[in-house]
């Protein structure tokens, strides 16, 4: 490979590394000043709903129902989770008439 191309590549790689490290340094200092900054997305206004516990024999299932005439949408969470996973989705689905 000609020396000029090799030199150009190493100069560009160095410039990219410097730009990346300065961006990372800025992000690190912002996170150090406020470590939970990314966890503060406000909850949207929730649609009116009813909450109940459905007794399905040997299983009790807690649910929300926003009413409406649309299809029922069932959100599932892992065993270690809870309905606290879904407050961001609830208003969006209720808006398009999903229960």
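-> sequence recovered:
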């Amino acid at each position: 490979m000609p020396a000029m191309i090799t030199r150009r590549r190493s100069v560009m790689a160095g410039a990219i590394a410097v730009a990346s490290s300065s961006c990372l340094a800025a992000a690190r200092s912002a996170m150090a000043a406020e470590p939970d900054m990314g966890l503060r997305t406000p909850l949207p206004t929730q649609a009116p709903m009813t909450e109940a516990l459905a007794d399905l024999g040997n299983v009790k299932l807690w649910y929300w129902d926003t009413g409406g005439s649309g299809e029922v949408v069932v959100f599932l969470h892992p065993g270690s989770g809870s309905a606290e996973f879904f407050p961001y989705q609830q208003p969006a689905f209720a808006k398009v008439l999903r229960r």
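The chain has two helices and two strands.
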